[in-house]
Design brief:
about 675 residues; mainly alpha; two-stranded antiparallel ribbon; 2 strands; about 0% strand; globular
Length: about 675
């Protein structure tokens, strides 16, 4: 790695000169990470950074992000100098590295380029010497995404007339047609025409499949499908072509519509059907609304039969996605965890990021919100290096959408680019946006988003409740706008479709949402059925929401004893799931019902006299050491008491003790001593 003892002062001096003051340490680190400490790149990026519009550079944390975006004429000249001095022998390998590094393991790149791994390693070392590549990372990564694109464009100019690029054209289309961003130096139209012709004339079947998958992940569903149309090549594996084509149509149903559900003749009995075919057909069946009890066993069989690898990744993805739509949450959690572990061992960051995202989604549905947030953050971290320039782009968007479904409008605003309108991700994005609008009280905007989801699903021939619950969302928006009867009709239609799909979590949510719009005599019946199906499905967080609504309805019907008991159960579930928003809402209902103070007294009486004394002193601001000295205890004993106090009172830190009335913690006369 080119970082030396002089790299830091050079970067610091360059930034100080440009800013007119000493830069933040993190800013210097970001510049060194993007340039590898190579002086020409340091000066090029610094000068280009200062040319960014003022709105894009904010002190100081924003400058760190800006370093990753800086892409101007100085960087172009610096990278062009590197490209022009690469040995002709390394030219195809350098182009491959500049396009595929980070998305495909280096050993596979060597096979694609039909060159020894040693040559690829030597090329990576040359690029590392010039600060473009971090050769110590596994796999090798480019330090700066704009520099990577600049290098690829420059190398294309040198290589396009060369006869030695027969395996490289896979990645040329990936760069100039697959990426959603416009390349910084687009080639002339005749170059693109030559590239397209080369794909069909010179690519073998495995290369066509690989290119189709890459185009799929960067948002080019139509281009991916075009590679798989027509007669199969003589060396093609029919099952692989069929499975990849089916998955791409499931991911981009706006291109040709979702694949039709398997017919009875092909669906009954697995027989000798390849696992890849079983996996992708299970997903197509789920999206077509086939009952979950028929979809889930085939998806699980496919996952058992498949071994994760480059040729089976798409099959594993399809099968676990089918399990998600079938609401087999425990099974989906087990398989997503296992596949993420396998991806980590195979150094597939993109795969690991995707399976971690699925794991986070399942954990959220099961009610493990803390684990969901943790795995979602890890998925984002793994994918962040390649944002907007690689197949991980849609993974990142999907990861962020996991958070938006928690009604976080700030996260939704940070989604950089709306997914392609023909993709399933666009549907999830629009649905999440509708949920945010609904929560914010923007009912007309919410209704428009939900109706857009419905129109897309109908045109894609996959209008059922397992994809998104757009009808109940539109129903809420209509009811809030004053048309409750039209909203209730939509909600009841959603229940009918959910019963047909036999997906329990989806049915439970539909029942709960319909109950909110139904007349009073029918609400409790709908809520009881919702609670039953959620409990059977293991969807704890949805069960907590249903019990909350049930308790409120029981209180409204003057059944105070049952209402309080139901709300207390809902509160316990919300606490276990760490859903603080729902927790606060339930506590509010309990307080309005006159149970808030009684609940506080019940919690306080669960404390021993010694624990109450410790709690009172902690409320007064005493440190653990002060409390120990005053009560003649060890510091360790005080810490143990505080742990028990937090658990019994349902709090997590000392500062929350100040919100409890002191009289609830008042200990008895000192004559009554309990065991410590």
């Amino acid at each position: 790695m080119p970082l030396t003892s002089t790299s830091w002062p050079i970067a610091r001096k360059a930034l100080t000169s440009a800013l007119g003051r000493v830069p933040d340490v993190a800013f210097v680190h970001a510049l060194l990470d993007a340039t590898g400490g190579v002086e020409p790149l340091i000066h090029a990026l610094t000068e280009d950074l200062m040319d960014l519009p003022p709105g894009q550079v904010v002190p100081e944390a924003g400058r760190v992000a800006a370093v990753r975006m800086a892409d101007g004429p100085r960087l172009a000249r610096a990278v062009a100098h590197v490209a022009d001095h690469i040995d002709d022998e390394l030219l195809p390998v350098a182009l491959l590295l500049s396009i595929a590094t980070g998305t495909v393991p280096c050993e596979r790149l060597a096979g694609l380029a039909r060159v020894p791994s040693s040559r690829l390693d030597r090329c990576a070392a040359v690029l590392a010497e010039h600060g473009l590549v971090d050769n110590d990372a596994m796999p090798v990564r480019f330090r700066h995404a704009p520099a990577r694109r600049r290098l690829a464009a420059r190398l294309l100019d040198r290589l396009v007339e060369s006869p030695r690029w027969s395996a490289v054209q896979i990645w040329l289309l990936h760069l100039f047609e697959g990426a959603t961003d416009t390349p910084p130096e687009s080639p002339d139209p005749w170059v693109l025409a030559r590239l397209r012709a080369a794909v069909r004339r010179r690519l073998d079947a495995p290369s066509r499949l690989l290119l189709a998958e890459q185009l799929c992940w960067v948002g080019q569903g139509g281009a991916a499908l075009s590679l798989l149309r027509g007669p199969l090549p003589s060396d093609a594996d029919a099952a692989s072509f069929h499975s990849v084509r089916t998955l791409i149509r499931c991911l981009y149903p706006g291109e040709l519509g979702t694949p039709p559900a398997p017919t009875a003749g092909t669906w009954n009995g697995i027989g000798d059907t390849p696992p890849l075919t079983v996996a992708t057909e299970a997903l197509a069946a789920a999206l077509n609304g086939m009952p979950a009890y028929e979809v889930a066993p085939r998806a699980e069989w496919a996952l058992t039969a498949l071994e994760l690898g480059p040729r089976t990744f798409h099959g594993a993805l399809a099968a676990i996605w089918a399990l998600l739509h079938a609401d087999r949450l425990e099974s989906a959690a087990t398989w997503s965890r296992r596949l993420a572990q396998q991806a980590r061992r195979s150094s597939g960051f993109a795969w690991q990021s995707l399976f971690l995202t699925i794991q986070a989604t399942v954990e959220r549905q099961l009610g493990s919100l803390k684990a969901s947030v943790r795995h979602n953050a890890l998925a984002l971290e793994l994918a962040a290096e390649q944002f907007a320039t690689s197949p991980w782009r849609l993974v990142i968007e999907w990861s962020r959408l996991v958070a938006t479904l928690r009604h976080d409008s700030e996260v939704l605003d940070r989604v950089a680019v709306e997914p392609p309108p023909t993709s399933a991700l666009w549907l999830y994005h629009r649905y999440a946006r509708g949920q945010v609008h609904l929560t914010a009280g923007r009912h007309a905007e919410a209704h428009a988003d939900f109706i857009a989801c419905g129109n897309a699903l109908k045109s894609w021939r996959m209008d059922n409740s397992v994809v998104v619950l757009w009808r109940s969302g539109a129903a809420y928006a209509l009811a809030a706008s004053g048309d409750r009867h039209a909203g209730l009709a939509l909600a009841l239609e959603e229940i009918r479709l959910a019963r047909a799909c036999a997906a329990p979590r989806v049915l439970g949510i539909s029942l709960r949402r319909a109950a909110a719009l139904a007349d009073s005599p029918f609400r409790l019946d709908l809520l009881r059925e919702s609670a039953l199906v959620h409990e059977n499905a293991g969807a704890r967080i949805e069960l907590a929401y249903t019990l909350c609504d049930t308790g409120v309805e029981q209180l409204r019907c003057s059944d105070r004893q049952r209402g309080r008991a139901t709300l207390t159960t809902a509160l316990r579930l919300a606490e276990e799931c760490a859903d603080t928003e729902l927790e606060a809402r339930i506590r509010g209902y309990l307080a309005d019902a006159g149970l808030g103070e009684r609940a506080g007294r019940t919690a306080a009486t669960a404390l021993t006299a010694s624990q109450k004394r410790v709690a009172l002193l902690a409320m007064a601001g005493r440190s653990n050491r002060d409390i120990a000295g005053e009560l003649f205890l060890t510091v360790s004993t005080v810490e143990q008491h505080l742990t028990q106090i937090y658990r019994k009172l349902g709090i997590s830190r000392r500062t929350e003790l100040t919100h409890l009335p002191a009289e609830l913690l008042q200990p008895p006369e000192l004559g009554g001593v309990d065991g410590i």
